[in-house]
Design the sequence.
């Protein structure tokens, strides 16, 4: 369609240009009429700059499998398209949204290379300022994002050190006590072997020792009241059989799952005169087994924590892989257990039937970390007691991961800004305002999913929806956002 300098010059974007400049625009650009339908699609190479002359445009962004409308307008002069063409090859020039028209619409269309040329020629100072703002914002966001990750890493390291210290200290204490008990067992064995015991009696003692060790491994878990009642019964039995310090031995036997029926079998298997020595020897056997169990539990806990740390950091694993979201959630909860503390109850409502999904696991762990950290901060703001519920479920063709806390909720006046970069409701020094922004970019940009929030006092829910299948663009994963 013919380009009218008068019509183009009346658009607010060009109204300050000279007649010569308007003429050049018309000579380099064109007027184009579009019927209802798409004009360009998000992700395509950005080849043109569009200024609407008349009609109605709708701009949308791809979120998960849906096109989400972000703007609809009939205002004359609105523009879209290759708005950052002036940056040239330093930035990949692709449309950042999709544009369609709902009625016959006319645009002034300028090729991206000509738009960039006019910007640099007519507004050199503005171009330098825009470049500085663009790259400066990117650099600042990258630097603060790195600081956010380092702060999270420092917090996790402190929590992991605390979690590792407890089982390590328990293992050290148990080892020292075990050394002492083994020494006493050797002494007791020396006393028994020096006595006038028949080979049959010694064989019976050894057999009883073996069966006692097996019984310790199968000891039931008792409530404090049940344990106290059994200790009283065992103490009475030991006193009746004139076993010295029976009140000290009884708790150990109860912990090992021994009862009076078992002690009756011991008494029937050995002579009465060696029963006290046999009971003492069995006491050392039980203590040794219990200490070995404690050492095994402690070292298993350490191994589990190290495994969780590797799972969390995804060391030695491909950046993009098919992952079990429950493994990722569990490793993150374990890594953050020190920060969560004992006053916050963690409830897991996992749907174990949900499938594994293609994902960047290390980056999803960062999302879980940010959302859990925010939930803990919210609960702590109400006195430090509350419930954090982590739920997974299928939501049509997507996987839902929901974090629900019983904090005070997010005020309505700031709810629309929480995903904005550098926006935070935390006190100065406690947050960078990038946690939710980073999470949003990881979920939406990297995983083609959705991150949304529902909030009211006592019930705030951050919901992450992830596709069950990989998008075509994920066959050659890009660098992390």
Sequence:
């Amino acid at each position: 369609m013919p380009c009218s300098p008068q019509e183009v010059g009346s658009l607010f974007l060009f109204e300050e240009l000279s007649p010569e400049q308007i003429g050049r625009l018309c000579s380099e650009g064109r007027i184009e009429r579009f019927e209802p339908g798409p004009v360009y699609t998000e992700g395509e190479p950005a080849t043109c700059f569009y200024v609407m002359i008349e009609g109605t445009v709708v701009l949308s962004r791809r979120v998960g499998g849906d096109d989400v409308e972000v703007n609809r307008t009939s205002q004359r002069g609105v523009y879209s398209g290759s708005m950052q063409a002036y940056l040239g090859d330093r930035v990949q020039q692709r449309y950042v949204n999709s544009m369609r028209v709902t009625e016959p619409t006319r645009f002034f269309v300028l090729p991206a290379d000509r738009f960039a040329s006019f910007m640099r020629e007519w507004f050199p100072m503005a171009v330098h300022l825009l470049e500085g703002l663009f790259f400066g914002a990117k650099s600042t966001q990258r630097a603060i994002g790195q600081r956010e990750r380092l702060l999270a890493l420092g917090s996790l390291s402190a929590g992991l050190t605390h979690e590792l210290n407890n089982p390590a200290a328990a293992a050290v204490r148990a080892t020292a006590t075990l050394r002492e008990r083994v020494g006493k067992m050797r002494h007791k064995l020396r006393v028994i072997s020096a006595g006038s015991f028949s080979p049959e009696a010694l064989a019976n003692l050894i057999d009883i020792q073996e069966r006692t060790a097996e019984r310790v491994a199968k000891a039931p878990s008792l409530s404090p009241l049940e344990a106290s009642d059994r200790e009283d019964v065992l103490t009475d039995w030991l006193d009746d059989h004139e076993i010295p310090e029976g009140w000290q031995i009884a708790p150990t036997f109860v912990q090992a799952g021994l009862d009076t029926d078992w002690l009756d079998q011991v008494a029937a298997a050995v002579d009465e005169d060696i029963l006290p020595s046999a009971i003492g020897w069995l006491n050392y056997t039980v203590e040794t087994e219990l200490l070995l169990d404690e050492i095994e539990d402690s070292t298993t806990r350490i191994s589990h924590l190290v495994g969780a740390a590797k799972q969390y950091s995804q060391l030695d694993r491909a950046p993009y892989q098919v992952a079990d979201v429950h493994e990722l959630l569990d490793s993150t909860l374990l890594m953050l257990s020190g920060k969560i503390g004992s006053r916050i109850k963690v409830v897991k409502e996992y749907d174990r039937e949900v499938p594994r999904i293609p994902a960047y696991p290390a980056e999803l762990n960062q999302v879980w970390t940010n959302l859990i950290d925010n939930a803990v901060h919210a609960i702590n703001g109400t006195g430090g007691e509350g419930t954090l519920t982590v739920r997974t479920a299928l939501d049509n063709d997507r996987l839902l991961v929901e974090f629900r806390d019983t904090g005070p909720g997010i005020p309505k006046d700031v709810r629309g800004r929480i995903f904005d970069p550098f926006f935070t409701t935390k006190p100065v020094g406690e947050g960078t305002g990038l946690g939710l922004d980073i999470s949003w970019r990881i979920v939406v940009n990297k995983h083609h999913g959705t991150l949304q929030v529902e909030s009211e006092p006592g019930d705030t829910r951050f919901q992450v929806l992830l596709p069950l299948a990989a998008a075509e663009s994920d066959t050659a994963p890009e660098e992390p956002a």
About this structure: The radius of gyration is 36 Å. DSSP finds 14 helices and 15 strands in the chain. Residues 475-481 have pLDDT under 50 and may be disordered. Residues 124-194 form the longest helix (71 residues).
